[in-house]
Amino acid sequence: MSPEDRAVGVAVAGVMAGAVGLAIFNPLTGGTASAETPAQAAAQHRESAVSERSGTEHAPRKAARSASRTVAASTVIKLAKSQLGEGESRNGSTKYADWYASTPHAAVTARRDGGSVGDYRGAEWCDMFVSWLSAQTGVKNMGWDAYTVQHASWFEKTHRWGDIARPGAVVFFDWQNGSRGGIDGIDHVGLVVKDNGNGTITTIEGNTDNAVKEKIRDKSEVVGYGYPDYAKSR
């Protein structure tokens, strides 16, 4: 989610002053943030009989049931590649934003950051795309958010943050300051496909020219990487 989007209320600039503290608090459980995916949290939300509901689909039941299983990075990358070319509708929304707005998390993050649940449908959606990948696959500790600064802060505070471009890592960018910048300046997020070994990485990103696209990015643009718990390759 870009600074421009924060300005319209979905993630207001005032949040940045408390970003680190908020990033490790999970309003769904009333404590510090667990490493749950959207599917896990949605299942917990239903089981707690919380009555926030919507008419569109939530994270699939299959993902909720299998959220504890170990998922390979290649599984998430494969799903991301299957979305290449997906873009915005005429009203500026996407299936990823529609999905996010339908989950209990939208109400939680809207209360945290300002704005309303409906704002997500026209908002910058790069992080909602990453959250959708997490929910669909049930990968552990990929986290969920619509605000890149909060998501990156969560990775850092849960000790899943670093500077190595591993396949399947969640990569965070700062277009102005690049690797010299900090988490509070992050503008954009995507998924690492591979390290090209020449100072660049191949990524798949939502909300790139209003679509899901594969890109070659210079590592100098990267603030850091978040690491989900993937199955160890054999």
TrEMBL record:
Keywords: Membrane, Transmembrane, Transmembrane helix. Residues 119-207 form the Peptidase C51 domain. Residues 33-43 have a biased composition (Low complexity). Residues 44-60 have a biased composition (Basic and acidic residues). The chain crosses the membrane at residues 7-25. Gene3D superfamilies: endopeptidase domain like (from Nostoc punctiforme). Residues 33-67 are annotated as: Disordered. This is CHAP domain-containing protein. It comes from Actinomadura nitritigenes.
